[in-house]
């Protein structure tokens, strides 16, 4: 009897086993479709809303599919701030990383230096229709290691100073000109600050400061300092140098002494973008803001960063396209990169105001527009972000951001130089580990 | 029937749970112990054996110490407040009042909602100027401009306040069950002896609830040590690392820095802390129970 019972259970068990092992395969059905090659492309950002830009992206993708019959491009959007790099790296470790990834210059090093990406130089050598000269050299070198190149620039932006022409005109202050100094910047910011008698805080600020290191580290460069040594191995002797300390002191003074920029509590309390709201006259940002400013119909201008050096410096933030080391279709990936960075596609993509095309011919199409010209003029002063070179830089940025919070919330009790000496040692420890 | 078949069937019945626990609980625990003894970066090839090196480094690490301190602050604030408020609410909804079933359900609702969704709601409640809390404050004439999640001190207070609300339901239900187990005769006898309401609560309800309270305190403490989702959603450890609690710190170490060796060591430190605190709580409560019995 028991033998018979166990015997009769066998088909049930067999079915369960089949279901158990077959289930995971259901999810992969798309890849296994007869004769269709699926090219997986990862990008940051959330769910695709039906915006004009997204419709354009879809159309461009379809054009690529028409050029390559039997190929389907699958976009994999990875949402959440700070989630993109960790998720892709995890996919790399588990062998499920997409064929092509968008590479953010600010976090490029961790991808390049851990074998996540493929060296593209053999593709470039083999390919007669691709010419690297057609791309901004300052931008392509972000993803270069010696002779090897790990990404082709899609689009980029140097960081610039935006100014609100309406507020400048109302105060009768002339627009800033390239090559202006910190003294001139402070003087301009003072004239544009409105601080009514008896008020707790200014009702209009000259400059909108935000404590995001990617938005303010260039001040240190423009005073002759830096965060790390040229090799990116240590911060002591650089981040705590007199030049670096004076730069951060200048920023702190803007908020606390001169009162031309909002203190952290003031901008937090405002809970909105003060520059966009017309409550701050200048802001240090990238090209992407133009989408919003245009939507607001703001009358704005753009100028290079103020400097204490003979030659100004800014940072360039960039998005590139790379083929992964574990890509299933590397050659197809390369074709996709070539297509996406080509002039025809680029002209249509950057028309949205998002960024400057990495393709020089596409970027040149927008010359003549004063804002675009002002942006292009800054490209030659731009250096790559530290995150393109130093794997742990995102965590160093956290340390630096928290340091400035500590200084500002201490209300003068924590001197800038002491904080920077301590932080330089913390950065060294983070780099050494 | 022979014995062999029975054994075979028994194993089949426990197999799913055994396989599940083995694969997803015991194996990872042992593997984490192994990783904790190595310098182990997820993206690097070689894993150097360093013995207790990770633990020694943690003892020196100011950020990990800060995370432990933040966690202890959170536990010290949220556990007593959480237990007291849920006991108070349980006492209220234990009253035979009209519509009390509705209130019990309402108080329980946060427990079945996703913590991510709850966090989103609380972000909205706590927004400066336009948030529910600030709007309400400014209506009654107080300062309604505070950005609670962006100011050191306030952010942790906000997390504690939110934890009271999330954990209220489950704790309340357990207290309710405990309250219903107290024999009615005790209260009747006390009433005949002329005991006041407070005396009845102090000398009957509390001692009779002691085992329930122990359970609630221990489970609440363990949960408090493992605070993660609201921090991840609402503060990301900020402002100025004031809400960087141990579990969030471990998450960052493992899944953003990929230092799974140190992250595993941190997990074991957290495990030891929880075990220690739970043991101490058992000790204290058992002693007070014995004293209660003796009195």
Report on this model:
The complex is a heterodimer of chains A (433) and B (295). Chain A has 433 residues and is of the alpha/beta class. Chain A folds into three domains: 27 residues; 191 residues, D-Maltodextrin-Binding Protein, domain 2 (3-Layer(aba) Sandwich), CATH 3.40.190; 202 residues, Periplasmic binding protein-like II (D-Maltodextrin-Binding Protein, domain 2). Chain A has 19 helices and 13 strands. In chain A, strands 1, 2, 3, 6, 11, 12 and 13 form a seven-stranded mixed beta sheet that branches. A four-stranded mixed beta sheet of chain A has the order 8-9-7-10. Chain B is an all-alpha fold. Chain B has a domain of 192 residues: MetI-like fold (Orthogonal Bundle), CATH 1.10.3720.10. Chain B is built from twelve helices and two strands. Chain B is globular and about 75 Å long.
Catalogue the unreliable spans of chain A.
Answer: 1-8, 26-30
User: Fraction of residues of chain A in helices?
Assistant: 40-55%
Instruction: Quote the CATH topology of the domain at 63-111 and 152-294 in chain B.
Output: MetI-like fold
The count of DSSP E runs of length 2 or more, i.e. the number of strands of chain A, is 13
| Number of beta strands of chain B | 2
Structural class, from helix and strand content of chain A?
alpha/beta
What separation lies between the terminal Cα atoms of chain A? 66 Å
How many structurally independent domains of chain A?
A: 3
Tell me the structural class of chain B: mainly alpha
Number of helical runs of chain B? 12
The assembly state of the depicted protein chains is: heterodimer
DSSP strand (E) fraction of chain A? 15-25%
Supply the CATH architecture of the domain at 63-111 and 152-294 in chain B.
Answer: Orthogonal Bundle
Full CATH superfamily name of the domain at 63-111 and 152-294 in chain B? MetI-like
Assigned CATH class of the domain at 63-111 and 152-294 in chain B: Mainly Alpha
Distance between the termini of chain B: 57 Å
Largest interface: A-B, 28 and 26 residues
């Amino acid at each position: 009897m028991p033998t018979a019972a166990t015997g009769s259970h066998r088909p049930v068990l067999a079915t369960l086993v089949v279901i158990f092992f077959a289930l995971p395969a259901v999810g992969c059905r798309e890849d296994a479709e007869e004769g269709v090659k699926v090219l997986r492309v990862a990008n940051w950002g959330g769910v695709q809303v039906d915006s004009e830009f997204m419709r354009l992206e879809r159309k461009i993708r379809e054009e690529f599919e028409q050029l390559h019959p039997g190929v389907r491009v699958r976009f994999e959007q990875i949402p959440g701030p700070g989630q993109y790099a960790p998720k892709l790296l995890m996919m790399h470790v588990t062998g499920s990383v997409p064929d092509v990834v968008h590479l953010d210059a600010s976090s490029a090093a961790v991808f390049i230096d851990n074998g996540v990406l493929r060296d593209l130089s053999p593709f470039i050598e083999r390919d007669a229709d691709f010419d690297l000269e057609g791309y901004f050299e300052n931008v392509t070198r972000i993803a270069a290691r010696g002779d090897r190149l790990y990404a082709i620039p899609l689009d980029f932006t140097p960081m610039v100073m935006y100014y609100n022409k309406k507020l400048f005109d109302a105060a009768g202050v002339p627009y800033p000109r390239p090559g202006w100094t910190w003294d001139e910047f402070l003087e301009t910011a003072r004239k544009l600050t409105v601080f009514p008698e008896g008020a707790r805080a200014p009702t209009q600020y000259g400059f909108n400061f935000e404590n995001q290191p990617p938005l303010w580290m260039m001040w240190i460069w423009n005073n002759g300092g830096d965060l790390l040594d040229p090799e990116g191995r240590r911060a002591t002797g650089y981040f705590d140098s007199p030049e670096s300390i004076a730069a951060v002191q200048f920023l702190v003074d803007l908020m606390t002494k001169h009162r031309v920029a909002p203190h952290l509590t003031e901008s937090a309390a405002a809970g909105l973008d003060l520059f966009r709201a017309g409550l701050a006259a200048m802001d240090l940002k990238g090209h992407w803001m133009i989408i919003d400013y245009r939507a607001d119909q703001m009358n704005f201008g753009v100028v290079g960063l103020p400097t204490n050096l003979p030659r100004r410096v800014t940072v360039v933030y960039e998005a590139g396209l790379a083929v992964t080391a574990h890509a299933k279709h590397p050659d197809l990936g390369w074709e996709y990169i070539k297509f996406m960075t080509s002039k025809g596609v680029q002209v249509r993509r950057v028309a949205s105001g998002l960024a400057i095309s990495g393709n020089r011919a596409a970027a040149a199409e927008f010359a003549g527009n004063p804002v675009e010209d002002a942006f292009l003029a800054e490209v030659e002063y731009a250096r790559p972000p530290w995150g393109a070179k130093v794997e742990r830089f995102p965590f160093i940025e956290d340390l630096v951001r928290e340091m400035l919070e500590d200084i500002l919330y201490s209300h003068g009790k924590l001197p800038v130089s002491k904080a920077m000496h301590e932080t330089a040692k913390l950065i060294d420890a983070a780099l050494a580990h | 029937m022979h014995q062999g078949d029975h054994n075979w069937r028994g194993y089949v019945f426990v197999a799913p749970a055994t396989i599940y626990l083995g694969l997803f609980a015991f194996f990872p625990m042992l593997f984490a112990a192994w990783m904790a003894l190595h310098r182990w970066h997820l993206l690097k090839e070689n894993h150097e054996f360093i013995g207790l090196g990770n633990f020694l480094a943690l003892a020196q690490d100011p950020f990990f110490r800060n995370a432990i301190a933040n966690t202890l602050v959170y536990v010290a604030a949220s556990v007593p407040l959480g237990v007291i408020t849920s006991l108070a609410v349980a006492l209220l909804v234990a009253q035979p009042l009209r519509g009390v079933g509705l209130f019990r359900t309402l108080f329980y609702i946060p427990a079945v909602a996703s913590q991510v969704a709850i966090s989103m709601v609380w972000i909205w409640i706590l927004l400066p100027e336009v948030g529910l809390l600030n709007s309400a404050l400014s209506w009654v004439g107080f300062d309604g401009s505070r950005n609670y999640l962006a100011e050191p001190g306030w952010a942790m207070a906000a997390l504690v306040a939110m934890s009271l609300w999330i954990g209220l339901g489950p704790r309340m239900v357990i207290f309710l069950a405990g309250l219903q187990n107290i024999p009615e005769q005790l209260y009747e006898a006390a009433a005949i002896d002329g005991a006041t309401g407070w005396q009845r609560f102090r000398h009957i309800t509390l001692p009779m609830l002691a085992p329930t309270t122990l359970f609630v305190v221990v489970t609440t403490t363990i949960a408090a040590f493992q605070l993660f989702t609201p921090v991840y959603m609402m503060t990301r450890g900020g402002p100025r690392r004031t809400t960087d609690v141990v579990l969030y710190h471990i998450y960052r170490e493992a899944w953003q820095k990929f230092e799974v060796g140190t992250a595993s060591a941190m997990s074991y430190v957290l495990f030891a802390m929880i075990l220690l605190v739970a043991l101490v709580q058992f000790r204290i409560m058992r002693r007070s129970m014995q004293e209660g019995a003796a009195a």
